[in-house]
Amino acid sequence: MEHPTGDEQVYAGIEAALQVEPANRALRLHLIALLLTGGQPGRALRHCELAWSTRPDQPEVAALAAQACDLLGDPAGAAHWRALGPSPADGLGDAVPGPPPEPVPDAVGMADVAGTAGGEGPAWLDVDRPTVRLVDVAGMVEVKQRLERALLAPLRNAELRAAFGKTLRGGLLLWGPPGCGKTFIARALAGEMGVSFVPVALSDVLDMWLGNSEQNVHRVFQRARRDAPAVLFLDELDAIGHRRTNLRGDGMRNVVTQLLAELDGVDSANDELFCLGATNQPWMVDAALRRPGRFDRTVLVLPPDPPARWGILRQALADRPVAAIDLDPLVARTETWSGADLVHLVDSAAELALAESVDAGAVRPITQRHLDGALRELGPSIHDWLDTARSVAAASDDSRTFAPLVDYLRRVRKW
Ligand SMILES: Nc1ncnc2c1ncn2[C@@H]1O[C@H](COP(=O)(O)OP(=O)(O)O)[C@@H](O)[C@H]1O
Ligand SMILES: [Mg+2]
Fold first, then answer.
1. Total structural domains in the chain?
2. 201 pairs with which residues across the strands?
3. Any atom of ligand 1 within 6 Å of the Cβ of 184
4. What is the pLDDT of residues 206-256, one digit of tens each?
C-alpha cells in the first residue's frame, strides 16, 4: 500500500476529528478549503454536501461547493450551488469584487499608518505590565521548566547565549484545551521578565477592518517594538485557518505573508520582542507559521495536574469567607477539569453560600457541602476537545507536537 502523503494525513486527521464532532463547522470548512487547494474537489464536494445536510442555508458552503463543481467540470452543479450561495450584498464568493488591495507595508521602515504616529499604537491594544509571576501559576512544573530553559535562562545569561550562538529569536507556541492557563502563563512570563505584555487575539486583527488585516498585523508589531522589551502574545493563531475559508483566499494569504515578514523581522527589528503564540487547535495553524525560526517550539498546556488544581481552588477561595474546607477530595474528583472549570466551581459554591446567607440574614461561609453541591451540578468542559485532539493526534505524523498529549491521554483514567 502506498504511504499516505503529509497532506493526506492532515485530511484523514481532520476527517477523523469530524466523525467525533460532525457539527464542527469551522473545522469542516477548513477541510473543504484544504481539499480544494489540494486538488481534491470531489472529496471537497462530499464535505460540502455533508455540511449542507446538517445545516442548509450556509452561503459559504454553497460557494465552496460551486468552486468544487467548477473544478470537477460540472457547470450544472456549479449553477445549482451558486443559486444557493451568497447574494452579492453578502460580500462573499468570487464574483464579488472586494475592497481594492492596500499596499502591503514592509516589515520595517514603513511610515506608520494614520493613528499610530504618536507612539500610542492602535487604541484596541490592551498593553500592560503584569504583576503576576510564574509562582502564581499553580503546579505545571514541566511547563515552567520548559519556559525556563527556552526563554528565561538564556535571557538572563548573555555570555552563555553568545557561547552557544543562541539567539532569542523564534517564538513558542502554547497549545492545549481551552481554559487551562495559556493566557495566564503568558502573562506570568511577562511579569517574570518584568516587561510589557501585548496581547492580541488574531480574530480581532482579522475582523477589525476587513481588507486591512495586513496593516493591523503591522501596527501590532510596531506597537510591541516601541514597547520593547515586551512579550507579544498572539492568541488564536488558528484563526487564520478558520477564516481562510470564509474570506477570499488571497486576503488571508496576504495576512499570513505579513505575519511571517513581521515574525522574521529584518536586522534587529525584533530584538527584545518575545513572541508567544497560543491556540486550542494547533492542527489548524498555517504550516508556514510553524517553520524553524517562527513558532517552531511547542509547549503543551494540559489540564491542571493535582498540585495545580489545589492551587487554583485555593486562589479562587482566597478572599472569600470559608469554613473547614478540605481540598484534597475535590482535587481527586476533578481530573480533566480545566482551570476555568475549577474557578467556575468555586464561583458556584460561593453563589450557594450567598443564597443561604441572604435567607439567614447573616454571612454563611462557603463549606465543603457547597463545594460538593457545585461539583455534583457541574462537570469538565473539555472532553469534546480531548476527543478531537486524540483523533487528530492519532492521524498526524507530527509526533514532536502531539506526543505529550498522547502520553497525557494514556495517563488519565477517563473522560
Ligand atoms: N496553573 C494555574 N494557576 C492558577 N490559575 C490558573 C491556572 N491555570 C488556569 N488558571 C485559571 O484559569 C483561568 C483560565 O485560564 P486561561 O489562561 O484564560 O486559559 P486559556 O488561555 O488556556 O484558555 C485563568 O484566568 C486562571 O484563573
Ligand atoms: Mg486564552
1. 3
2. 235
3. yes
4. 766 556 788 888 889 998 999 888 999 999 998 876 655 555 556 677 788
For the chain, give the percent of residues with pLDDT over 70. Answer: 83
- Do 279 and 312 lie in one domain? The reply is no
In a domain, 264, yes or no: yes
Over residues 307-360, the pLDDT tens digits come to 999 999 999 999 899 998 999 999 999 999 999 999 999 999 999 999 999 998
Q: Which ligand is nearest to the CA of 180?
A: 1
Q: How many CA atoms lie within 13 A of 119 on its CB side?
A: 3
Q: How far are the Cα atoms of 23, 24, 57, 376 from residue 54, in angstroms, in the given order?
A: 7, 10, 10, 33
Query: Is 115 among the domain residues?
Result: no
Domain extent at residue 366: 306-377
Determine whether the shortest distance from the Cβ of 281 to ligand 1 is under 6 A: no
Q: What is the pTM of this model?
A: 0.71
CB of 93 closer than 6 angstroms to any ligand 1 atom: no
Distance 298 CA to ligand 1 centre (A): 18
Nearest residue (by CA) to ligand 1, atom 25, is 184
Ion ligand 2 residues within 5 Å by Cβ: 182-183
Q: How big is the CA angle at 364 (ends 359 and 369), to the nearest 5 degrees?
A: 100
Q: Is pLDDT above 50 for 396?
A: yes
Query: Is the same domain home to 152 and 188?
Result: yes
Q: Are 17 and 391 in contact (CB under 8 A)?
A: yes
Domain with 263 in it: what CATH number?
3.40.50.300
Pocket test for ligand 1, best of 180, 237, 338 (most atoms within 8 A of CB): 180
Co-location of 171 and 215 in the same domain: yes
Q: What share of the chain is helix, strand, coil (3-state, %, to 5)?
A: 55, 5, 35
pLDDT band at 110 (very low <50, low <70, confident <90, very high): very low
